[in-house]
Amino acid sequence: MNKIIRPILIACLGFLIGIIWGLYLKISIAFICILVVIICTLYIKSNFNLRSKILNKKIIKFFYKPIIILAIMSLIGDVYTKFCSNMYEQIYLSSEIEDLAIVISEEKQTEYKKVYTIKTIGKLENKKFILKINKNSKTSLKYGDVIKVKGEYESPSVARNYKGFDYSKYLKSKGIYGTIYSQDNNIKLVEYNQINILDKCINNARNAVITNSKKLIENTTISGLLIGILVGDTGYIDDKTQDDFKNSSLAHMLAVSGQHVAYIIIAINFALKVSKLGKIFGKIISICILIFFMLMTGLTPSVTRAGIMGILIILSSLFYRKSDIYTNLALSMLIILFFNPFAIFDVGLWLSYAGTLGIILFQRIINDLFTIKIQNVVLQKIIDFIKEMLVITIAAQIIIIPIMALNFNQISLMFWLSNVLASPIIAICIIYGFILIFISFIYFPLAQILAIPIELLINIIIIIAEKTANIPFANLLVTTPKTSFVIIYYIGLIILLYCKRENKKQYKIEKTVINNIKNMLKIIVVLMTIICIISYGIKIVDKKLCIFFIDVGQGDSTLIITRKGKKVLIDGGGSDSTYDVGKNVLLPYLLDRGIKKIDFAMISHFDSDHCLRSFYYYGKIDCKKCYYIKTNRKFRKL
């Protein structure tokens, strides 16, 4: 495979461009693609050298072919995305759904409803919906049941505030078309257990892992974490624990990822080596187990990426071909987006690919900055192990930082500490957890005894997450960065990589630590200067009085930005015991607007739908003593 051209990488890039174009622009990309091809063709003809066949071949190979691939895949991505969007829009026009469907999830219960995921198999073929029925209903459906359902259809809501949560995009990323509300008399059971054998085995295996984890460990927090670590289901983990893992930059450990796939491949290879089966047969078995594991964990973007890349590596060794990491990465994304172009809205997809790309691109560069040599062999191995984890963590974070700031308004400053402490333990928990569950299927009493160590290990991880999350200044709360800033940031990284590559070509040696730091500082200074000039220029030009009415559900909230840049917040919506409007709506809205502090806060009156409890967190406003207060204090993270 040609490592310079990488046609699959170019095809993936083109398909990605087409999807983005199809999502955000109504006009077709066809005209642009045809125009680009014509211009490139004319350019090549004008520079065609009749005397040099080698030169002409290089021009066509390195310039013309990639442009053609990019144009074709962009057109395919655009057309395919518009076609899929049209399918959703047609369903959104419905007010009632009546069709045959099959239940493809276990029952989940909310405060008032029983919730199922169903897939239609009648007129609306292969469309996923969320089915909700009253909690007191006598109807209880099982995985694989075929039903005739009739109910009121509700299309998912779009973002109600500036850059707010878009439920329709979230459901599209999961391939779900909306929600059906139905009553008992509108649901008729047609057949029991009509799911295919493979799906049935996958569901039974997943349920067995969940059930046995709960039985082995009575502590719900620890058992929930074990389930999250093994199958990626975070539904059994309480909100506080999830927040601790998120704030300590350990949330990726609750999502099945490349680490899990790597350990599964190692375990399979070890088992096959012991069993003395042939290499070819062993690799085929490995591929089958990886596919089964991907399906069992729900085909989430992170595990799908890791699984596909793992399968491609095995296939390359099976056919005696050299595996190319960039091609594998591109092909896995191409497959994911082909099955669902709206997976582009999934933050997990971008975090998974960005983290992997960061490790590929920056691991060596960062590794060169940390050189520690001592004479003690044992101590040197420990230091090398810690250094490797630290380098991998930092390399991944370099690419991930803008994505975290865009989606979570948060940059972790202690990610290196939490990951270095928790990574070795989580590695043991993954391997030990799968072995424990396997033993529980064979002899449960023995598994109960063996569950004690893993309970202790998971408890240590919880403590690490909790302590590192609560370190002062562990997380930096930031306003949502501008798109221009993110683009400049990534351009800076590309320039840094290009400079290092060119330096290697010129001098045939690696850069020294001093040269690395100098070049990095130069790029940072230039970028920061550009950003400051652009930001300052925008502030000078934009001097309009702006009034924003914020959708906070039941209640009122208004933001006023004066011509002099003063920020005035009037009321803050309501808050109850189950949903904190201040934390989940108001604070993200202000950060999305680029506001991290307010100059004036006004409360019209002290009803719960105007003066919310979490209002006290913003600038420490004491609503009981003051009706009007001036503050320049920064917002504090809840």
Mind explaining what this structure looks like?
By secondary structure, the chain is an alpha+beta fold. Among the domains are: 7-91; 94-195, OB fold (Dihydrolipoamide Acetyltransferase, E2P); 257-343, no CATH class; 483-541; 546-630, no CATH class. It contains 18 helices and 14 strands. It has a five-stranded mixed barrel with strand order 1-3-4-6-5. It has a five-stranded mixed sheet with strand order 10-11-12-13-14, with no helix packed on it. α8 (258-275) runs antiparallel to α9 (279-296), α10 crosses α11 and α13 (377-408) crosses α14 (415-442). The longest helix is centred in the first third of the chain and has 40 residues, at 53-92. It starts with 6 loop residues before the first helix and ends in an 8-residue tail after the last strand. The model is unreliable at 505-514 and 613-638 (pLDDT under 50).
The separation of the N and C termini measures: 51 Å
Alpha-carbon Rg, integer: 27 Å
What share of the residues lie within helices? 55-70%
Biggest β-sheet description:
5 strands, mixed, barrel
Mean of residue pLDDT values:
80
Which CATH class of the domain at 94-195 is shown? Mainly Beta
Ranges where pLDDT stays below 50 over 5 or more residues in a row are: 505-514, 613-638
Spatial order of strands in the largest sheet? 1-3-4-6-5
* Structure classification: alpha+beta
